[in-house]
Amino acid sequence: MSTAEETSGDDAPWGEVTPEAARRLLVAAVDAFAERGYHATTTRDIAGRAGMSPAALYIHYKTKEELLHRISKIGHDRALHLLQAEADGDGTAAERLAGAVRSFVRWHAERHTTARVVQYELDALGPEHRTEIVELRRRSDAVVRGIISEGVRAGEFDVPDIPGTTLAVLSLCIDVARWFNAQGSRTPDEVGALYADLVLRMVGAPPQP
Amino acid sequence: MSTAEETSGDDAPWGEVTPEAARRLLVAAVDAFAERGYHATTTRDIAGRAGMSPAALYIHYKTKEELLHRISKIGHDRALHLLQAEADGDGTAAERLAGAVRSFVRWHAERHTTARVVQYELDALGPEHRTEIVELRRRSDAVVRGIISEGVRAGEFDVPDIPGTTLAVLSLCIDVARWFNAQGSRTPDEVGALYADLVLRMVGAPPQP
């Protein structure tokens, strides 16, 4: 029922969702949304995938949109947290930017099914939830822009267009969710290492040891 | 009915689709797939958007999958053609790579609704059509890899991982379709110029004049 990706990663995915039935429904919703799209999925489909009745679903979630919001909120919180942890670390701007890229790429690769829903179904959120999620995205953007700006100020980086480069760095990492294939030739860590190197080149950092 | 993007671009979009009714249905299908996803769209929805009856649709397309295949085939042919034209041009590898990025980005920005359908609904194609499209994608990949390899051989570029860098370059351009907003602060040409510069940095090319 659950996708292979849900067993990978360095922490229990959806561990914050309780009780267990609510978590099971969330995992089923991620799979259904990723496979058929939000609009083609019904709450009946989700309940069926979770081995539950539609009535049992409504105990935990009032609407399909509430499920999407929960998935999107947890995913965006997680992404922001990963970036912030790297930004707050010790080390040069280059080391922290490389760490942020590795961490963000790894998440989009290991959790690609979730990441696709989180990144591609934004338009299906209601206005209030959409505003909340857009604010989380602004904060993620600000974290990466902050590291790049620090690198420029410290003379480590040479970046003519800081907002544009920030957008490109995040975009490159996010698109991993589209093409990453767990059966492919590269592991999440390998893609993270490759992309960290490419991003340091983008910001004009000298090659890292 | 048709999206704003369909009026932009440097050539008549879908000009190869005739008669006019078939073209109108195709444009309606692009809009519907982009808005609600392939699986949530019915042939009735598409006919309705085109101001036609479902029976009239079946004169032109036997199935919904045939519409998606037609959209995907035209989109991928166009993308390959744009890249190939730049690869075949005069100039150094750096000039041709920059041209390919500008052209590919511009297409994904100007035609972002179409590009989203083309890039995100691959899994909805039937096996035979999917194989055909995957082959077109392999050829696009080979064109970009070819320019990068030539730059390395000529001593213009310094690229430790040519396939990985090719993947990243195409991925960066493709993701423009996800975030590009015609009301945003950057034009397709501006994004193309920014990304061409970032990609030259990725391949270790000296700054261009």
Automatic annotation (TrEMBL), chains A, B:
Protein name, please?
A: TetR/AcrR family transcriptional regulator
The opening ranks of the lineage are: Bacteria, Bacillati, Actinomycetota, Actinomycetes, Kitasatosporales
Recorded hits in InterPro entries, A to Z, give: Homeodomain-like_sf, HTH-type_TetR-like_transc_reg, HTH_TetR, KstR2_TetR_C, Tet_transcr_reg_TetR-rel_C_sf
Could you tell me which species this protein originates from? Streptomyces microflavus
Question: Which GO molecular-function terms appear in the entry?
Answer: DNA-binding transcription factor activity; transcription cis-regulatory region binding
Q: Which residues bind DNA?
A: 42-61
Ranges for domain HTH tetR-type come to 19-79
UniProt entry tagged with the keyword Nuclease: no
* Highest rank taxon of the organism: Bacteria
Entries under Pfam families matching the protein: TetR_C_24 (PF17932), TetR_N (PF00440)
Keywords (A to Z) from UniProt: DNA-binding
